[in-house]
Amino acid sequence: MVNKQPTVGLNNNSLTGKEESCLKLKVMDAEKQEETSATSAAGEFSWNEAEQGVILGSFFWGYVITQIPAGIVSQKYGGKWPYGLGLALTAIFALLTPPAARWNKSVLIFVRIIQGVGEVSRRHLAVFINFEILIIHVLVKIRD
C-alpha cells in the first residue's frame, strides 16, 4: 500500500509549483500501480476450474481426433508438406491464442483444437520419418 498523503512537515504552502506537480504525479502513479496490481492479482480472465479444464483439454481433442487421418496422410504424401502445414498451423494459431481468449471462450476452444490438429501431424510425421529412416538403416546393415 502506498500512502497517498504528503509526508508530515510539508504543508501545501511550503511547496513550489514544480514540487506540488511532482507530488501530484507521484500520487497518481501510485494509484495507477495499485489498480494494476489488483487487476493482475485477480487475473485477466474469470474462468472457473471446469472452464479452464475444457480450454486446456480442447488441444487434446484435436490431437486425438486426427491421429489416424494424420497417419494415413503421412503414408500417402510423405513428410515434407504435411509436416510444414502442421508446423504452420500450430504457429499461426499459437499467435491467435491471446486475442481469441480475449474475444470469446468458444473461439479460444476452437483455436486450441486447431493447434492440436497441427501438432498431431507434426508428431506423426516426425515418428513416421524417423521410423522409416531406422528401417532403411537396419535393412542396409542386414544386406551388407
Structure description:
This protein has 144 residues and is mainly α. The chain is built from 5 helices and no strands. The longest helix has 39 residues. The protein is elongated. The N and C termini lie far apart (77 Å).
Q: How is the secondary structure organized here?
A:
Blueprint: H1 17-42, H2 49-65, H3 67-77, H4 80-103, H5 105-143
Give the key terms.
144 residues, mainly alpha
Shape from CA axes? elongated
Record field, number of beta strands: 0
Beta percentage is: under 5%
Topology as a string of helices (H) and strands (E): HHHHH
C-alpha termini separation: 77 Å
Low-confidence stretches: 1-9
Q: So how many helices?
A: 5
Mean pLDDT: 74
Give a short account of the largest sheet. none
Q: Total domains, how many?
A: 2
**Range of helix content:** over 70%
